Amino acid sequence: MGHRSGFSEAAGTALVQKYATFSGRASRSEYWWFVLFYFTVLFAIGIVCLVTSSFSDFRGGVPSPVALLLFIGGLTWLAMFLPQVALQVRRFHDRNISGWWYLALFVGGFVPYIGVIAGIAILVISVLPGTDGPNKFGPDPLRPEARAEVFA
């Protein structure tokens, strides 16, 4: 069987090695381990912010520690937005689907009612296994020794 990503390896791949790489493919394990990392980091920042705000007095406005934590949370989300989008595009590529479909579904996600269908479509594509062997977007991430024949 091929190589599967772990928690720290998926985070490192998405945030360092392939920060803004939209080409190639991403296995399900690489994708879902990064999703877990992404939500764990944002959840942890949210919990720290919630605990800090519960000990704060808001009569004079937002206290500095809470404002700082909100700022750090926003920067973290912003820093991880591009690698998350790039990883999602590579996940679509693993299913042999153009990344432009992700853009269309993402934009469709802001349209009432259609957004639910777009979200379900993104989830289903992310859950399904990738194409076996090479496809037009590159070699199988689980079997990198097999090479893609045609990039059309």
What does this structure look like?
The structure is a single chain. With 152 residues, the chain is mainly α. The chain has helices spanning 7-17, 28-54, 64-94, 99-108, 114-127. The protein is elongated. The two termini are 27 Å apart. The mean pLDDT is 87. The longest helix has 31 residues, at 64-94.
**Overall geometry:** elongated
- Note the beta-strand portion: under 5%
| Biggest sheet record | none
Low-confidence stretches: none
Number of strands: 0
Order of helices and strands: HHHHH
Assembly type: single chain
Average per-residue pLDDT, rounded, comes to 87
| Overall helicity | 55-70%
Radius of gyration: 19 Å
| Protein structure class | mainly alpha
The tally of helices reads 5
- The end-to-end distance, rounded to whole angstroms, is 27 Å
Features:
single chain, mainly alpha, 152 residues
Summarize the structure.
The chain has helices at residues 7-17, 28-54, 64-94, 99-108, 114-127. The chain has 152 residues and is mainly α.
Secondary structure elements and pairings:
Layout: H1 7-17, H2 28-54, H3 64-94, H4 99-108, H5 114-127
Helix pairs in contact: 1-2, 2-3, 3-4, 4-5
